[in-house]
Amino acid sequence: MAIEILGMAPLLSVFDMPTSLRFYRDTLGFTVVQDSGQGDKSGWVMLRAGDSTLMLNTAYDNDDRPDAPDAINLAAHHDTCIYFGCPDVDSAYEYLREKGIAADPPENAPYGMKQLYLHDPDGYNICFQWPVG
Fold it and tell me: What's the Cα-to-Cα distance from 125 to each of 42, 52, 80, rounded to whole Å?
């Protein structure tokens, strides 16, 4: 018998939790459903938007955090992409532009998905996508 899987919650390592929360919660519209108890300065946060769950964890404890993110660590984030189902990719693009988020216009991929790519504050790739037609 196969394992019953009912969801997925990727965990992303972030440099600055308040900055990440401004992006995921305040800009993208996720809701904080659980955290480690320090509000915006929590070391761990679980967020939800629709059927999507995402967890964020600070890369450093407060006393250990350097003044700036490690460039090598940030470079590795470009190898990670979180794909979100989004029925109206064009409206998402306009909304993000209004919020000051840099992104190229959506494009149709050869495999039949309309896709909008952008980066979060830690350099992770984010894609909003939906089947064409």
Answer: 23, 16, 6
Residues 6+ apart with CB under 8 A from 101: 27, 118
Which tens digits make up the pLDDT trace of 28-69? 999 999 999 999 999 999 999 999 999 999 998 767 888 888
Which residue carries 């509000």 as its tokens? 39
